[in-house]
Amino acid sequence: MSKRNHDLQGRRDTAFARGLGNALPVFVERARNAELWDVEGRRYIDFAGGIAVLNTGHVHPKVQSAVAAQLERFSHTCLMITPYESAVELAEKLNRLAPGPTPKKTIFVTTGAEAVENSIKIARAHTGRSGVIAFGGGFHGRTFMAMALTGKVAPYKAGFGPFPAEVYHAPFPIAYHGVSVQDSLDALEHLFKYDIEPARVAAIIVEPVMGEGGFYIAPPEFLQALRRLCDQHGIVLVIDEIQTGFARTGRMFAIEHSGVEPDLMTMAKSLAGGFPLAAVVGKAHIMDAPGPGGLGGTYAGSPIACAAALAVLDVIAEERLCERAEQIGRTMVDTLLGAAKSLPAIGEVRALGAMVAMELVKNSDPHQPDADLAKALTKRAAEKGLVLLSCGLYGNVIRFLVPLTASDEIVREGLAIVIEALRELVTR
Ligand SMILES: Cc1ncc(COP(=O)(O)O)c(C=O)c1O
């Protein structure tokens, strides 16, 4: 008998601890580019991209053949034991791609959280200092330091403390919520007065566009001010590009919009088109601070993932995915702003390239987030054949992470579902 979503959901719920989130009761049978099919044969457009992992789409043919070719040779030796050329080539490419003139070096790890952990280890080893500053609403992962840096309690931190010491949060500038760049910079100055002197701060970590926290775009002048502040006090500036990287925002990395050269960057997600790979890439003299053996991991820089990542970088260049991100972003913003004219629930539409979001509010008031509507919308969209993700400190933001390889038809079809579903929900 053919498998049913409902039955598999029952087995899933029994087999997995409830702490493991689950957005939709849709069990995937296969996926290609921006579409997937469930075990019952239903087709879905994928506007989630595995949470920003699939900028090059599901099973891009080039990624598929690179991985198949690597599997013919070997699948694992451990980069720390007997290395291989593909990892070196990938590190060389990332060192060249990382913005700014300072020579760069790379380490590979396996997940985004691990990249974040290691960026702080490197910053501490380099500075000999302990303090770390992150931003309210930011998300950096689920391991202990990454969780401490994350600026959202429920569900990420609730019940899991105590956290590593010496982590401080400042407000992220969000114009829509009345927090200006100056407010954020003033708060950092207050932090230096109230809590920790800048000479004890090892790192400031920031997402150039807040991902999980609601797709708020850090204004370039804010990132430039952070750069100046870090230079002034000898603090390592860590730019978390895990969600924003690899052409999503119309540039290879979102920080490029600001002209800032990061000290360290964390990368993961779309780096390897669906294979687990993450990296810290940064200024060589900072990256070299930890001693031999202090950094690494058994699966860090897996040869399968490196083969995939090299193919991903080729695809981004050959298919001009940065330009494509700009086009997709424009289409989405135009369509959503058009719909917003008759749908006051859409409080704001914002985008950097194809990192697009719409914030849902009650009574056109930014201070009345409508998380229930966002939840209902993702559910209704799925019923209509679209995988959609919410995010935000209050859960009221819909984020769009369609593969950059998606056709115009697919993008438009998905958007039409979003608007139709939203209209149905607000005119109930
Ligand atoms: C900005 C950012 N940093 C870190 C992480 C953690 O990555 P991972 O889930 O691979 O550990 C995420 C994941 O969503 C992220 O968006």
Question: Would you summarize the structure shown here?
Answer:
The chain has 428 residues and is an alpha/beta fold. The chain is built from 13 helices and 15 strands. α7 (181-194) runs parallel beside α8 (220-233), α11 packs parallel to α13 and α12 (371-383) crosses α13 (408-426).
- As residue ranges, the low-confidence spans are none
Strand content: 15-25%
Could you describe the largest sheet, including whether it forms a barrel? 7 strands, mixed
The residue fraction in helices comes out at 25-40%
Mean pLDDT: 97
Total number of strands: 15
Number of helices: 13
Taken in chain order, the helices and strands follow as: HEEEHHHEHEHEHEHEEEHHHEEHEEEH
Cα shape: globular
Q: What ions, cofactors and ligands are bound? A: pyridoxal-5'-phosphate
Radius of gyration, Cα only, in angstroms? Answer: 21 Å
Strand neighbour order, sheet with most strands: 4-10-9-8-7-5-6
Class computed from helices, strands and strand pairing: alpha/beta
Distance between the termini: 38 Å
Report on the structure:
- The chain has 428 residues and is α/β, with parallel strands linked by helices.
- Helices cover 38% and strands 17% of the residues.
- A hairpin with a 2-residue loop joins strand 11 and strand 12 (355-360).
- The radius of gyration is 21 Å and the shape is globular.
- The chain starts with a helix and ends with a helix.
- The mean pLDDT is 97.
- The chain binds pyridoxal-5'-phosphate.
